[in-house]
Amino acid sequence: MDSTLRPELFDFHGVMMTHFFTDNWNNYQNFQARPDDILIATYPKAGTTWVSYILDLLYFGQTSTDRNKSIPIYERVPFLEIDIPGLDKGKDLADNLTTSPRLIKTHLPVQFVPKSFWEQNCRIVYVARNAKDNMVSFYHFDRMSKLQPESGEWSSFFQRFLDGKMLFGSWYDHVNGWWKKKETYSKLHYMFYEDLVENTGGEIAKLCSFLGKSASTGEIETLSGSVQFDNMKKDKMANYSTFPEMDAKISPFMRKGKVGDWKNHFTVAQNKAFDEDYKKKMTDPTLQFRTEI
Ligand code: PPS
After folding, report:
1. For residue 77, what are the domain limits?
2. From residue 241, how far is each of 133, 223, 231, 237 by CA, in Å?
3. I need a surface site. Which of 51, 78, 237, 244 has the fewest CB within 10 A?
4. pTM for the full model?
5. Which family does it belong to (predicted)?
């Protein structure tokens, strides 16, 4: 795809989107969820692939090793709302999954989630990442993925992130909207990228408990080892090197996998402006992020 075909952002019911995620809107809004479906929901670049991979290995890692070797993660865990000409629509991939449970990825803000997931009382895992690192990861992704709007210069990207004019909307609205949903929907497990980096095994144990899955300490340790950044980075089925339209030479999908890389991007002035703006937008004291560990 030619870079001139990069999609434009536009306001869609109050959220900035590109047509790749709205063209199939009516169809995916009618997605028929099953009670055992598991939805993995995130703001882009918050750790979707990591948690998708963990869940996939938890459910299917031991029974089907061929799956790990031959099916890319984006087919094992379809991206519900994606609709790119020439590629299978995420909704169709999800409909055609033969696994049980079906693992499904979404970046939709909570108010856009198809109603069937709520009606079927599906388990949902939401992963959130601190805004500063999330922003940096998003910037490099927009540079390397031709399916994304142009990143532009870092300084303009920085401002656009603060203004909430990003694909899938404002980070602030996304993490807050999903956090609030926990109050009324009990089958939502809200987890943080930083905790996963700090204590992968502990977070996997919490996931198992949420999913009602038993796993021994040894199994959790083995799984935790398999999903460390360096292992996933070299795994072609996890690192998106097989995905068309992404140029790992510009920036690899598995880029750094760290907490605190924002310090290599933010100027002192940007950091100050960010912190002041953050305080105004993030007023719920129960939702706290760590920008270093
Ligand atoms: S996407 O495109 O929205 O699905 O991207 P997503 O998978 O949510 O986020 C990509 C970032 O997650 C990092 N990542 C990991 N970090 C630590 N350990 C593991 N195993 C891991 N797997 C993926 C990935 O490197 C991206 O972050 P950055 O900061 O850009 O490196």
Report:
1. 10-281
2. 22, 22, 14, 8
3. 244
4. 0.97
5. Belongs to the sulfotransferase 1 family.
